[in-house]
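Protocol step 4 of 5: obtain the predicted structure for the target chain.
Materials: sequence only (see below). No template structures provided, no constraints applied. The aim of this step is simply to have a reference model before the mutagenesis design in step 5. Sequence pasted as it appears in the construct record:
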Amino acid sequence: MTIKNKAFLEHLLSFVSENKQAIFQEVISNRTNHITVVLEDIFQPHNASAILRSCDVFGVQNVHIIENKNEYNINPKVVMGASKWLNIHKHNELENNTLSCINQLRLQGYKIYATSPHADSYLIENIPIENKFALFFGTEQDGLSDLVLDNADEHVKIPMYGFTESLNISVSGAICMYEISKRLKSSDINWQLSDQEKTDLLIEWAKKVVKRSEAIENEFYKNLTL
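Step 4 output (structure tokens):
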């Protein structure tokens, strides 16, 4: 299947301009699944969209969205197409989707890191990054639920020195992802996507820019089996 996927990717990229292919290669070299971002019950469209832009900018490929009370709405003017290039996973089929999301991520090998102003929280620049981790963000008004805080492996906070006790979630997310991205890139941690992950993702991206990509795919695999 890997060989077939690579062959199909090569065929599909023949329909993509050299300039766009170069952009794909540059961007994918900075993508990571070492960290994933989880948003619990975010409801303000501006902030919801801005944090997706930050994920794209700092190379976080997978975003998990928990919808217990609030539906996650994207403002297209703010997101500016960033969501098109991300893998967004929604958790909204249960009465309470938070624990289900946590359990799924743990099965995938992720530690659970909850953003929280707790006194014993790690500062963002000091959190352990050797193992894969999921960084949870909560609502603008109430923060994360007790379920996340109680089940987290670590608590994380951004150092603040003014009278204000919290930051807008989109700002918090950008600061955290910038700090983590900087640390990963200067480390010897294997944070980049695997060859198989890159192939699968490049196929997804190419399909978004190639017209009639589904028909091209069907024809390719049809001829491959002849």
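Step 4 remarks: The CA atoms of residues 116 and 157 lie 6 Å apart. Strands lie at 35-40, 62-66, 87-91, 111-115, 122-123, 133-137, 154-157.
Proceed to step 5.
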